[in-house]
Amino acid sequence: MDIIQFFGRFHVLVLHLPIGILMLAALLEIHCALFNKERSKLCNLIWFWGAIAAISACILGYMLSTGGGYSEDAVFIHMAFGISVASTAIICWLFFKFKKTTSKILTTLLSCLQLFLLFSTGHYGANMTHGETYLVEHAPNFVRTLVGFEPHQEPRPPITAIEDADIYLDLIRPIFKANCISCHNDAKAKGKLNLANIEGINKGGKTANTWGNSQLEKASYIVE
Ligand code: HEC
C-alpha cells in the first residue's frame, strides 16, 4: 500500500474543479466588465473556492508525480503552469475582494490571464495522459503541419502474402499503437519504455540494462 499514490490518483478527479470554478469566475468578471453589469459579491466566493480547488489539485498532482513514469520535462512544465494557476487564483481573489477602484481593463486582463493559464495547464496535463499526438491524430493535414507535426502517412497497402510484410510496420506497430503507446510514448514512458518508435523499442525500459546474457539466452529460447 502506498498512501501518497492512493491520494495522488485523486488528482485526475480533483483537477476538474478548478477548471470549472475558475473559468466561471473569470467569465463572470469579463461579462460584467464588458457589458457594464453590476458585479455580484458572490464572485469573490467563487474566486476563493477556485483558489482552494487549484491548490488542492497542485498538492495531489505533486503526490502523483512522485510515483514516476512521466518524462521530467513534461511534469515540470505542467507543474509550473499548475502552480501559476493557483497563484493567479489567489491574487485574483485578493484583488477583487479588497480593491477600492474598479478598472475594467485590469479586471478583464487578470481574468483573461487566468483563462490562458487554465487552458495551458490542461493542455500540458492532457499531453501527459493521452500523448502529444492525441489532439492531432485525426486532424486534417493542414492543421497538422500548422502545429508542427508530419502530415498523415499513406496507409500501408493490405498484406496479401505474409512473406512480404514488414515485421515492424505491418505487424508490430499496429499492435503497439492500439494497445501500448497510450502509456509508453515520448511524454509518458511508463517503466521508462517508449514504444512509439523503433529507437525506443530497441533501447528498452528501466530493466533493459539489468538483463544479463544468460537471461537473454533464456528469453530467445522461449521465443523459439
Ligand atoms: C495503462 C498503461 C499501460 C499500457 C496500456 C501498457 N503498459 Fe507497459 N507498463 C506500464 C507500467 C505502469 C509499467 C511499469 C511497471 C513497473 O515499473 O512496475 C510498464 C512496464 C512495461 C514493461 C517493462 C519495462 C521495463 O524495462 O521495466 C514492458 C516490456 C511493457 N510495459 C510492455 C508493454 C506492452 C508491449 C504494452 C502493449 C501490449 C504495454 N506495455 C501497455 C503501463 C502500461
Give an overview of the whole structure:
Helices cover 64% and strands 0% of the residues. The protein folds into 2 domains: 3-130; 153-223, no CATH class. α3 runs antiparallel to α4, α4 (42-65) runs antiparallel to α5 (72-98) and α5 packs antiparallel against α6 (104-130). By secondary structure, the chain is an all-alpha fold. The chain is built from 10 helices and no strands. The longest helix is centred in the middle third of the chain and has 27 residues, at 72-98. The two termini are 38 Å apart. Bound molecules: heme C. The site of heme C (HEC) has 14 residues, from loops. Residues 10-129 form the DUF2231 domain. The chain crosses the membrane at residues 6-30, 42-64, 76-96. It holds the Pfam family DUF2231. InterPro entries: DUF2231_TM.
Please give a handful of descriptors for the protein shown.
10 helices; 224 residues; mainly alpha; binds heme C; 0% strand; 2 domains
The figure for the number of domains is 2
Task: Count helical runs.
Answer: 10
Given the C-alpha coordinates, what overall shape results? elongated
**How large is the share of residues in beta strands?**
under 5%
Overall SS class: mainly alpha
Mean pLDDT: 87
Protein name: DUF2231 domain-containing protein
Transmembrane segments: 6-30, 42-64, 76-96
Domain DUF2231: 10-129
InterPro entries: DUF2231_TM
